[in-house]
């Protein structure tokens, strides 16, 4: 009986982990005709979707924990970064840009 409970718990955790890993980006990919070129590329890539979600979580956390001056700065930096990101035309550019931004945000919250 104990073995069955442990097995069921393990399988449940595995399923939850795999679902969380493939949750998609922080935005809806449902209406592709309304998406920018960068958003379409993110929607087509599990790797970019994962990084986008991580970036969204980090940005949300930073916005909630920083003082007012730093919060204003992170918003300003985010807007500038989004303009830079919009210039990307391929997977590698988007990935590099997103990872760089994620590192910048992580530095702010640590």
How would you describe this structure to a colleague?
- With 110 residues, the chain is mainly α.
- It has one domain (2-109).
- It is built from 5 helices and no strands.
- It has helices at 2-21, 37-44, 46-65, 68-85, 91-109.
- Helix 2 (37-44) crosses helix 3, helix 3 (46-65) packs parallel to helix 5 and helix 4 (68-85) packs antiparallel against helix 5.
- It is globular.
- 11% of the residues are buried.
Descriptors:
single chain, 110 residues, mainly alpha, 5 helices, 0% strand
A few lines on this structure:
By secondary structure, the chain is mainly alpha-helical.
Q: Topology, please?
A:
Elements: H1 2-21, H2 37-44, H3 46-65, H4 68-85, H5 91-109
Beta content comes to under 5%
Number of strands: 0
Q: Main beta sheet, described?
A: none
Helix content: over 70%
* H/E topology pattern: HHHHH
**Total count of domains:** 1
Structural class category = mainly alpha
Quaternary structure type: single chain
Termini gap = 45 Å
- In DSSP terms (H or I, runs of 4 or more residues), the helix count works out at 5
What is the overall silhouette? Answer: globular
């Amino acid at each position: 009986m104990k073995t069955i409970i442990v097995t069921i718990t393990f399988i449940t955790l595995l399923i939850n982990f795999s679902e969380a890993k493939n949750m998609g980006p922080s935005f809806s990919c449902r209406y592709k005709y309304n998406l920018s070129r960068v958003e379409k590329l993110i929607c087509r890539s599990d790797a970019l979707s994962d990084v986008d979600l991580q970036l969204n979580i980090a940005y949300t956390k930073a916005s909630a924990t920083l003082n007012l001056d730093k919060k204003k700065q992170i918003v300003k930096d985010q807007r500038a970064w989004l303009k830079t990101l919009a210039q990307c035309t391929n997977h590698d550019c988007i990935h590099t840009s997103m990872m760089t931004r994620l590192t910048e945000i992580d530095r702010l919250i640590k």
